[in-house]
Specification:
Elements: H1 3-9, H2 17-27, H3 33-43, H4 63-73, H5 85-96, H6 115-120, H7 127-160, H8 170-175, H9 177-190, H10 207-218, H11 224-228, H12 234-237, H13 242-269, E1 278-279, H14 285-309, E2 327-328, H15 329-337, H16 344-351, H17 355-359, H18 367-376, H19 403-411, H20 413-422
Parallel strand pairs: 1-2
Helix pairs in contact: 1-2, 2-3, 2-9, 3-10, 4-5, 4-7, 5-7, 7-14, 9-10, 13-14, 16-18, 19-20
């Protein structure tokens, strides 16, 4: 496996930016002295370990369940992809035809056939053998459902961090090494966990990303549509042809509406205080925050494409707001005790209609309404991303990834604060 393959494999893994920078040095022998100096500084902090650390654990397929079903029914059942929930469910329907099993009716008490119904269907199995097969198919169906949920859970953070990087195939990635290096490094930067639980995420566009994007700009033939899949910044989108921009606009629009629908269902089943976004024990905050990140990324990409195409008038009178993440009550209390206050964006969010109600036309919310809500809480609507795409701020200085603080911050924020102050000096930067 060469270095471009390793860079490609890093796209769906949480490889540290330092480790990607080391691969970039290997993939780009033609870097200028200044470019190499900047990338080399990041690469000096690379891990000596090999391999990748996945964002989420890979789902366990249905190999065992499919094998058990084949043995019990004594059939092959045709080809089945044990890692694809749809294929697994189709396999269950094929082998289940022997006992007239309906994938939509799997309740063991309510949906089994009685003796007369089995006789009418021509099923010559004993009650015990029929029940065994019904239970097996029920377990197979449940496994397919779990696999689908696991896939969505894993896809959510992947989209939230690097956009549509999953849509890039290996051959396209390898065809443009300069673009590949930028995408791999920028993806790693966007996938970084928050360094400290009460601070916003660091600017992913740092000096290394700036250098790598500049290489793409300096030459002709760069695959800008591929870069736009993970970096829909105005200066990138301006380089797309109308049909390319239109295709990307459709992808972001569909993603925004799909995730908004998932958030709406979760909102209905959760007890979340809209005014504070503070939750008590028992609320699935991890799923909410992951989906909120996906939605905000998709919404930002959608609005960026609309601006680039000059089509913001299409949503002028139905402008969905951002979605705020939730915070645990104990963390919120500590935040207040340490002198923190509620983020102004939360106040804007609480004043506006729920975004999914705006998207489906249930509630009206114009761009002017969003601007008014922002002004009432001293938030600049364009610079904060409420009504305009975010632009690259000045390239951030590179700092080594403080992995130790990441792990502690989630379980003991007070101790994370001590570590951040004492272990991470903040002076080890390149500017």
């Amino acid at each position: 496996m060469d270095v471009l393959d390793r860079l490609y494999d890093s796209l769906d893994a949480r490889l540290r930016p330092e480790d990607v920078a080391a691969l970039v040095l290997e993939a780009q022998p033609s870097l200028t002295h200044r470019e190499r100096e900047i990338v080399q500084y990041a690469a000096t902090h690379a891990s000596r370990r090999h391999g990748f650390s996945a964002i989420e654990a890979r789902q366990v397929g249905a190999t065992r369940q499919v094998a058990a079903a084949r043995f019990l029914f004594a059939v092959d059942g045709g080809l089945v992809d044990v890692d694809d929930p749809i294929s697994v469910l189709e396999f269950a329907a094929v082998v289940g035809s022997e006992i007239s099993w309906d994938p939509a009716r799997t309740d063991f008490l309510a949906d089994r056939l009685n003796r007369d119904a089995r006789a009418s269907a021509g099923i010559e199995l004993s009650k015990r053998q029929y029940n065994r097969r019904f239970r097996m198919l029920r377990r197979l169906s449940a496994k397919a459902s779990r696999m689908e949920r696991a896939r969505k859970t894993r896809d959510a953070p992947l989209l939230a961090a690097p956009g549509f990087v999953g849509a890039i195939d290996r051959s396209r990635f390898r065809a443009d090494p300069d673009a590949a290096c930028f995408i791999a490094y920028f993806t790693a930067r966007r996938e970084l966990r928050r360094e400290f639980v009460l601070k916003s995420r660091a600017n992913p566009f740092d000096l290394v990303a700036d250098v790598l994007l500049a290489r793409c700009t300096a030459r002709g033939g760069t695959d800008w549509p591929m870069i736009a899949l993970t970096c829909p910044a105005p200066d990138v989108l301006s380089r797309l042809r109308p049909e390319q921009l239109g295709r990307l606009l459709g992808m972001w629009s569909a993603a925004t509406r799909s995730i908004a629908s998932s958030l709406a269902a979760l909102w209905q089943s959760s007890s979340i205080d809209k005014a504070t976004m503070i939750v008590r024990h028992g609320v699935d905050s991890s799923t909410w925050n992951a989906l909120a990140g996906v939605y905000n990324t998709a919404r930002a990409g959608w609005i960026a494409c609309l601006h680039a195409a000059g089509l913001t008038s299409l949503i002028e009178h139905a402008w969905p707001g951002k979605v705020m993440r939730v915070m645990a009550a104990d963390l919120a209390a500590w935040h207040q005790e340490s002198g923190g206050s509620q983020h102004p964006d939360t106040s804007v969010w609480s004043r506006l209609p729920l975004p999914w109600d705006v998207l489906d036309g249930t509630v009206a919310c114009s761009r002017a309404d969003v601007e008014a809500a922002c002004r009432s809480h001293r938030v600049e609507p364009e610079k904060s991303g409420w009504t305009a795409p975010r632009t690259h701020r000045a390239a951030a200085r590179f700092r080594p990834t403080p992995q130790l603080v990441h792990g502690v911050a989630g379980s003991d924020p007070l101790w994370a604060m001590v570590l951040r102050r004492e272990v991470i000096s903040g002076q080890n930067t390149l500017g």
